[in-house]
Specification:
heterodimer, A: 456 residues, alpha+beta, Sulfite Oxidase, Chain A, domain 2, Immunoglobulin-like, five-stranded antiparallel β-sheet, 7 helices, 21 strands, B: 2 domains, two-stranded antiparallel sheet
Chain lengths: 456, 239
């Protein structure tokens, strides 16, 4: 620990060198620093105020002190402060031919909890976002059923509801990094994932209503947008088009599936499938069809465009892998990260997010020396099934180069792999499901870079 | 599926045992999954198959549900040049970042994958598409991109026929006629390459102390990465 470290005491303690004025200056430099410093003050060996500069200019009132603010409903649907205008979804122009069949990224570097605000949920369109009139929209459930049925959106809202918090992740999250470091930004390395509270009807409720034939082993959803996207979803006993079984790890996820009409307590956004979407927790997001109009129960997969050309993995043995459906355990440190610069040595709090499509996060370990030694991070409640879990760990930065990284373990015992391990089995053409440990390098200047460790 | 067929692709006794266990439950979802589902009455409407038919537009890999009608290579060429070539290229080579119809020959695609060099950007119908009926499904459902779902059934069959001809799919000569009988018989060159995922494929261990010796080989971003526009994202840079 450096003797020049920035030393802080818990908020509310007045007898300190960190006068409130000094503190404000400090806050301007980095919003995230204050809370972190306070959180680990108890571990500090130095005396309060040691080593800090002193603010001596008499304090002035800010302009807001002498004016009236806006009245109620002047902004009928509330918006973030104008000072937060940089917190937005972003896209990468060269990734796709246009913005209609494209993707945008959630700014996890600016989020502080596990919930993604609805306006920041990542977007993935195959034919653009459409505005579907809920009063004219219907869901048909048919195929291998006793009685095909049709539902209005109001019908679905009348049925017994189910609410749960889950992440939703495009399996291409991190795809630009298979061959090497490309994106010096957390938003672009991990932003194809968002986490929301979802509300809707459980699929099993609808299955019971229509009387699904026990011989059904697959179902698929279809959207009412231009892509009319469809994906095959396996149930118990599912075999692929060659008669090969779908692994048991993938054949029970449908039990948690729902037809959602709400996201974080309000109606789905058009970007996320308004008025209703399929949602299968833990599975790659492409399978959770937006603008859902039809569910069909069948006894074989469709092997759609999405399943034969996209969402497949070209393996190093030359084979092409289908039905890799689960987003396995993943994690990333979102503070510090390349989207920020550290403001001098001293106390920081390492914070990050972890998630697994197989269940709850069991542990997250953090290393600041390139993975030689690890320390178990604190998991922040709630720790939920197939949901983003926040983790924290105090960090004293000595001003030297550091390689910081996190490693998640889920409740099945699966440990997030290194990039080397992942490349050994998937090669460089895999595109999807890149869940390897992310390394950030802190430079002496405080800059944070995206790097890869190739040999470990 | 018979047990003997399953053991054909099972590797060793352990895998065969798994296959036998699975075959006992094959072709049936676990109806116990519905046990906790609430019993609901008086919500929704019944619907007839005839009423669903206009929406029942999925064509399975094996040709199930392919519609009546037919198309030809020559009719498809005309439609393709008018409605498709501006994005997919006059010769199926792709344009403006939109997908190629014609990729590397399948053996070259496989060799690139094995060599670890880029295989994915040279994908086309001739190396990375499993079944012709699914191509018809995609074209009829989703194309042309700017006016999805507007081709007639015969037009969609014709475009399917033409792009397969363009990609030199075996059996799809200039006189080939595409319909619900002929499409399922086409052998797509990339079909034998498909395998099904078998679950988690890495096995990292949770080491906590002195996990390796030596120095980590750290790779940073290449100096000339091209047009990566990450600069503007640093909106929160505190400098």
């Amino acid at each position: 620990m450096s003797e020049n470290m920035i030393n802080t005491v818990p908020e509310g303690t007045k007898k300190t060198g960190e006068a409130s004025s000094d503190r404000r200056k400090f806050l301007r430099k980095s919003v995230a620093l204050a809370a972190g410093g306070a959180a680990i003050a108890a571990t500090s060996a130095a005396n309060a105020g040691d080593g800090l500069k002193t603010w001596t200019t008499p304090l002035k009132n800010e302009p807001t002190r002498h004016m009236l603010g806006r009245g109620v409903v002047s902004v009928p649907y509330g918006l973030p402060s104008k000072y937060e205008s940089g917190v937005v979804r972003r896209n990468v122009g060269w990734l796709t031919a246009d913005t209609i069949a494209s993707i945008s990224f959630t700014p996890w570097q600016d989020l502080h909890g596990i919930i993604t605000p609805n306006g920041l949920h990542f977007e993935r369109y195959h034919a653009g976002a459409v505005d579907v009139d809920p009063s004219k929209h219907h869901l048909v459930v048919h195929g291998m059923v006793k009685q095909p049925m049709i539902f209005t959106v109001d019908d679905l809202k009348r049925l017994p509801s189910h609410t749960a918090i889950h992440f939703l992740e495009c399996p291409a999250n991190g795809a630009m990094e298979w061959r090497g470091v490309q994106m010096d930004s957390l938003q672009f390395t991990h932003g194809m994932m968002s986490c929301s509270e979802w509300t809707g009807v459980k699929l099993t409720t609808l299955m019971e209503m229509v009387g699904v034939d026990p011989k059904a082993t697959w179902f698929y959803g279809e959207g009412t947008d231009g892509s009319a996207l469809q994906r095959s979803v396996p149930m118990e006993g599912a075999v692929d088009q060659h008669g090969r079984p779908i692994p048991a790890e993938y054949t029970s996820h449908y039990r948690d599936a729902m037809v959602c009409y709400a996201q974080n307590g309000e109606a789905l956004r058009p970007e996320n499938g308004y008025p209703i979407r399929l949602f299968i927790p833990g599975f790659e997001a492409n399978i959770s069809t937006k603008y859902l109009r039809r569910l069909m129960f069948v006894d074989k997969p469709l092997v759609t465009y999405q399943e034969t050309k996209h969402y497949i993995e070209v393996l190093p043995n030359g084979m092409v892998r289908q039905y890799d459906l689960v987003n396995e355990a993943n994690s990333v440190i979102n503070y510090p990260c390349p989207d920020f610069k550290l403001n001098g040595k001293g106390t920081y709090e390492i914070r990050g997010i972890a998630w697994s499509g197989y269940g709850k996060i069991a542990h997250v370990d953090v290393s600041v020396d390139g993975g030689k030694n690890w320390k178990q991070a604190n998991l922040v409640e709630p720790v939920l099934n197939k949901c983003v879990t926040k983790f924290t760990l105090p960090f004293e930065w000595d001003g030297e180069e550091a390689l910081i990284m996190s490693r998640a373990t889920d409740e099945t015992g699966y440990v997030q792999p290194t990039l080397k391990q992942l490349r050994e089995v998937r090669g460089f053409n895999s595109i999807y499901h890149k869940n390897s440990i992310q390394v950030w390098k802190i430079e002496k200047t405080g800059e944070v870079k995206n790097v890869q460790i190739e040999n470990v | 599926m018979s047990k003997s067929k399953m053991s054909n692709w099972s590797l060793g006794l352990a895998a065969a045992a798994v296959a036998l266990t699975l075959s006992a439950n094959a072709f049936a979802f676990d109806a116990a999954a519905l046990k906790s589902a609430p019993k609901v009455q008086g919500v929704g409407m019944n619907i007839t198959d005839a009423a669903i038919k206009p929406w029942n537009i999925s064509y399975f890999y094996d040709g199930t549900n392919l519609p009546d009608g037919k198309g030809t290579v020559s009719a498809g060429e005309k439609i393709y040049q008018e409605q498709c070539a501006m994005c997919h290229g006059d010769f199926g080579e792709g344009a403006h970042g939109y997908p190629k119809m014609v990729g590397d020959p399948v053996d070259q695609f496989e060799a690139s994958a094995k060599a670890g060099v880029d295989a994915v950007s040279n994908r086309g119908l001739n190396n990375n598409w499993g079944n012709a009926p699914t191509l018809m499904d995609m074209i009829h459902r989703h194309m042309p991109f700017y006016a999805p779902g507007t081709l007639t059934t015969d037009e969609a069959y014709s475009v399917t026929c033409y792009v397969m001809n363009l990609a030199s799919i075996p059996g799809v000569g200039d006189d080939f006629v595409c319909d619900k009988t002929s499409l399922p018989k086409i052998k797509m060159p990339g079909e034998p390459l498909y395998v099904t995922n078998s679950g988690p494929d890495t096995a990292n261990q949770r080491c906590m102390k002195d996990c390796y010796k030596g120095t980590p080989f750290v790779v940073e971003k290449a100096a000339s990465i091209g047009n990566v526009s990450v600069g503007k994202v640093k909106a929160k840079d505190t400098q």
